[in-house]
Amino acid sequence: MVDFEIPTEQWAQVIEQTGTTTYKKIPVRQPGPDEVLINIKYSGVCHTDLHALNGDWPLERKTPVIGGHEGAGVVVAKGEYVTDIELGDYAGIKWLHSSCLACSFCIQSLEPLCDHAQLSGYTVDGSFQQYAVAKAAHVARIPKQCDLAAVAPILCAGLTVYKGLKVSGVQPGGSVAIVGAGGGLGNLAIQYAKAMGMNPIAIDGGADKGQACMDLGASTYIDFTTSRNIVADVKAATSEGRGPHAVLLLAASDRPFQQAIQYVRSNGTIVCIGMPAGGNYQVPVFDAVVRCINVKGSYVGNRQDTAEAIDFFVQGSVKAPFKVAKLEELQSVFDMMKANKIVGRYVLKVSD
After folding, report:
1. How far apart are CA 181 and CA 174, in angstroms?
2. Pairing relationship of beta strands 322-326 and 345-349 according to DSSP bridges
3. Peptide bond before residue 200 is cis, with ω within 30 degrees of 0
4. Which residue range or ranges hold the Enoyl reductase (ER) domain (predicted)?
5. What phi and psi values does residue 201 have, to the nearest 5 degrees?
6. For 53, phi and psi rounded to 5 degrees?
7. Best CA proximity match to 129, nearest among 138, 117, 139, 120
8. Predicted confidence (pLDDT) per residue in 274-310, tens digit
9. Per DSSP, what are the bridge partners of residue 345?
């Protein structure tokens, strides 16, 4: 068994008031009986972290709170009840920090729906710190051959879109429109769709995002900033012009949600993943009934979904295009995110 020297203090990014994050030193916590302490090496920055910063979701946030929920690192301490993780193992912190594991949702592998679920970087402290405590039952198991910087975005962005594609019901050979394809989730959604045998149609704004989407395997790129008719363009990119079998909505505004019902194929599925602050989704009842349209919400995946999403990464089927920034540069990353200037994802280097 490996012994690690664990400091008493560490650097962290702490949200002490809405809208700003403070880079400061804080104490290092020790894990409880069913917890592990992870020395976070890298942590991805997700759009959800921006919502946590701004406090603009109808969900109570812990304050102060340490954000972050794509943390990949090394287990350096564990509680007495933890028997299936060893010191030195790689592990990841996800959005779902914990659930009760006993309710009707948990026993059906629907842990994200648990009434007692705790959320990393929102209701409990997350991965924008050098040493993070996590529930052993819920941490992601990361194989040792993985590059921790590269795997970090899989822990939320990858897992979220993989789950959405699973629930879409699209069969191999079917088409899926990915709205917000140029962002961190969208870049991964294109790759997972390809790996699952689907035909991804990328929708986003700007030539840079278009090139990135095509390089990752999109069959078509539709630029909403230049398209004169989004609905017609999406339909034209599909077989028989009938529209895609599914739409994966990753957008941070609600207008694309209203457009999707117009171009999805009859008997198709609209999967809502993006959560625009204050957004609403109105579905024409006539279309939903007569065209047999399915509208689904898809939240984060369960523990099995996590293992599968990571396995695609290990096999080389997906990779997250990312840039590395320092932990102390988090506010600058948020500023770029607000300005919609990020292609792919930023990953923070948290510890050496």
Report:
1. 17
2. parallel
3. no
4. 19-348
5. -110, 115
6. -60, -45
7. 120
8. 887 677 888 889 988 999 999 999 989 999 999 999 9
9. 322
